[in-house]
Amino acid sequence: MSDQQNVKNVDKGRRNWLIATSVAGGVGGVAVAVPFVSTFAPSEKAKAAGAPVEADVGGLKPGEMMTVEWRGKPVWILRRTPEMLASLQKTDSEVADPKSAVPFTMETPDYAKNETRSRAEHKDLLVVVGICSHLGCSPSGPFASGANPQLGADPGFLCPCHGSTFDLAGRVFKNKPAPQNLDVPPYQFLSDTKIVIGKDEKGEA
Fold it and tell me: Rieske domain: which residues (predicted)?
């Protein structure tokens, strides 16, 4: 066999080996890449945890509160009585941040930057995340005026962990461990009896 024929045979063998190696490597690369990329896709559970939540408030009577879960957190919906709303005029001067200028974990929606921290067309309904801005405990309440020594003559909420108190708009009283008011999540009314939490005119949170 001539030297030239030997070179051709060697080159042909090397070419076949290189092609097989490249194909195997490419397949292996794809096999590795697919699971790796899939880890970036949110799970169904994660999607559900962040999705807006609807709540029917039609049966909520004045003075009653209901709790719904949004993003794994309790969201309070309190239908305030005229007396409850009137108490906010007094506590306005007693709370640390009456206009909710300093946010906790989320920006306060513009429609809640007021004394009642609610939408103007539904002032009676308070919608807040029931998580204290100090160390994440869940406050108790609402307590009526004079029903809790730590609140004194003011109605509101009390955090049992370190004694922070909040008025009936979720605003923290002065000189308490909690540094910020309770969060007001984005929300909007779908009808007079149904609201959606986690979404408003600006889109989803």
Answer: 90-196
Domain shared by 35 and 127, yes or no: no
Cα–Cα distance between 137 and 114 in angstroms, integer?
25
Adjacency order of strands within the sheet including 65-70 = 65-70, 73-79, 125-129
In angstroms, the CA 20 to CA 137 distance is 61
Residues 59 and 126 in one domain: yes
Q: Tell whether 30 and 112 lie within a shared domain.
A: no
The per-residue pLDDT for range 3-45, each reduced to its tens digit, is 544 444 445 555 454 444 444 444 343 333 333 333 333 445 5
Nearest-angstrom CA–CA distance, 82 and 46: 39
- pTM value? 0.75
163 neighbors 156 (Cβ within 8 angstroms): no
Q: Which amino acid is at 64?
A: E
DSSP element (H, E) containing 145:
none
DSSP single-letter state for residue 175? T
Q: Do 171 and 163 contact (CB within 8 A), yes or no?
A: no
